[in-house]
Amino acid sequence: MVKILLLEDDVSLCEIIEEYLSDEGYEIDACDNAKEALELAYERHYELWILDVKVPRGDGFSLLKELRALGKNTPAIFITSLNTTDDLKQGFDSGCDDYIRKPFELAELGIRIKSLLKRGFSHKKEDFEELGEGFKFSLTSQNLYHFDKIIPLPKKETMLLNLFLQNKNHFLSVEKIFEELWEYGEEPSELSLRAYIKDLRKILGKEKITNQRNRGYCYVGS
User: Fold this and answer.
1) Residue 79: what are its φ and ψ, rounded to 5°?
2) What is the mean pLDDT of the chain?
């Protein structure tokens, strides 16, 4: 079943949308603030996000920007009363795939969802790297899964795991890792790197990531 995250702080409208989409055969997780939406979108897998913009504890534009920065590419639709051209531009600049101005007909929302999901399923299929013991990493969405449950990772640990998988069975120097993980202006930290390695080993197994003096670190995979 297609799972959709719905962020809408108008209780009546949220219930109406949730009931309509449930009747259409979708599984809905609804929330009313940006902080909870961020946590749900980060921890769970959805085929679509439907986001209001003017919500408590943040706003939809900033929320989507943060999720895109974390490598999350789930299709997103904004539903909002903001209706100027500048608002529309800001919405698409933050990474949305569609933008619906309130008020709207539920049938219109349904049509746009079907169109977006059709494009998403045909162009955004997940490319998984199997890691053993039920773990797999999506090279598409940058999510780590244990069977079908997302295992939340901090941003730099996600980037590090992705880097290791792109260079499987090859040693990466500490300098190379610093270059890839730390942005311009950030101060690289070997202590932080060791903590990221330790956390990944706890999840995947100590034997998965080896290290040698003067050579760096290596992800061991088949």
Assistant:
1) -120, 115
2) 91
